[in-house]
Amino acid sequence: MIKLRNLEKAVKTRAGFIYLLRQINLDIAEGEFITIMGPSGAGKSTLLSIIGFYDSAWEGEYHLFDQAVHKLSLKERAALNKRHVGFVFQQFHLLDNLTVAENLDIPLSYRDVKRSQRDAFVADTLDRFGIVAKKDLFPSQLSGGQQQLVAVARAIIAKPTLLLADEPTGNLHSDQGREIMKLFKKLNDEGTTIIQVTHSEANAAFGNRIIRLQDGWLAK
After folding, report:
1. Is residue 103 situated within a structural domain?
2. How far is CA 9 from each of CA 61, 62, 187, 190, rounded to the nearest angstrom?
3. d(CA 79, CA 138)
4. For the chain, give me the number of helices (H) and strands (E)?
5. Residue 94 forms part of a structural domain
6. Which pLDDT tens digit goes with each residue over 103-140?
7. Helix (H, G, I), strand (E, B) or coil at 211
8. Per the structure, how many domains does the chain have?
9. Helices (DSSP H) in 9-73: which residue ranges?
10. At what angle do helices 74-84 and 100-110 cross, to 10 degrees?
11. Is 80 exceeded by the pLDDT of residue 96?
12. Distance between CA 64 and CA 62 in Å, rounded?
């Protein structure tokens, strides 16, 4: 499903180029549940952002299904993102000027789902996550944990082919975190490919393979 070959990411500083990722060669099969682990600054979130099409400034080869992503335009990459990817951001990235319900509706609108169906999906998801009472509130009116739940709900509402999650339970108490991970496991059992970044060994145990990064390199 995903093939990365000699993937590298560098940023320019006054002292020259600093590499965030070096020579990443990685295959991820459809239906896997992958965990990326490593110390802070290892390149975990950077790698996830590249896979999710949120970072286009990299070198190397990236294939998703039969698409050579490295040869696609930014517009074509954005289309792949909308068609296939659900992303749980570490900093939530909810749209501040939209209510909870409207934030959940956004991924559905990208997939040309009819309005009546979208309303039904949003209602079901609000109920599933226990946030019906929050549907008309704006992100600024929610706690960090509530924003995290909305972010997870938004990522999965359109049933993405590929779910990417950056510290998905970081702002949740332990019981909520376990429920989210159980939900991820259920989605994976139903065929969703999942890649998560986490420091939690307990969360990693829900997956079937751990990839470790160290200073931008795949650890051996």
Report:
1. yes
2. 12, 13, 31, 33
3. 27
4. 7, 10
5. yes
6. 999 999 888 788 889 999 999 999 999 999 999 999 99
7. strand
8. 1
9. 44-51
10. 110
11. yes
12. 7
Which tokens sit at 44? 């975990």
Asked if 203 and 210 count as a contact pair (C-beta separation under 8 A), the reply is no
CB-based contact 121:108 (threshold 8 Å): yes
Tell me the C-alpha distance between 212 and 38, whole Å: 5
Alpha helices in 85-199 (DSSP H): 100-110, 115-128, 144-156, 174-189
What CATH number does the domain containing 140 carry? 3.40.50.300
Tokens for 30? Answer: 């459809």
pTM: 0.92
In the Cβ-directed half-sphere of 122, how many Cα atoms lie within 13 Å? 22
In a domain, 108, yes or no: yes
Domain extent, residue 150, equals 32-58+71-218
The pair of structure tokens assigned to 156 is: 């999965």
Q: Which residue has the tokens 């999906």?
A: 121
User: Exposed, middle or buried by CB within 10 Å (0-12, 13-18, 19+), for 56?
Assistant: middle
